[in-house]
Amino acid sequence: MQKKYHIYLDDYERRIMVNCLSEGKHSDPVDEILLKVIDAPTKKIKVIHKEG
Predict the structure, then answer these.
(1) CA dihedral (7, 13, 39, 43) positive or negative
(2) Residue ranges in the chain whose pLDDT is less than 50
(3) Which of 6, 11, 23, 24, CA to CA, is 20 to 30 A from 44?
């Protein structure tokens, strides 16, 4: 089974990611956010899947 990771970004970080990646701008701000994600501690959370 492959592990899944969830990344939680605030509104500002999310806008930077979407705008830079969709408009082909310089990726320096995206690189900063990715470094933050790489260095972030992991937390175990319980995920409940509901069908319907």
Answers:
(1) negative
(2) none
(3) 11
* Tokens describing residue 14: 């999310």
Encoded tokens for 21? 């990646």
Q: Distance between CA 25 and CA 20 in Å, rounded?
A: 5
Query: From CA 21, how far away is CA 47, in angstroms rounded?
Result: 29
CB-neighbour burial class of residue 6 (10 A; exposed 0-12, middle 13-18, buried 19+): exposed
* Cα–Cα distance list, 23 to 26, 30, 32 (Å): 9, 12, 18
> pTM for the complete prediction?
0.49
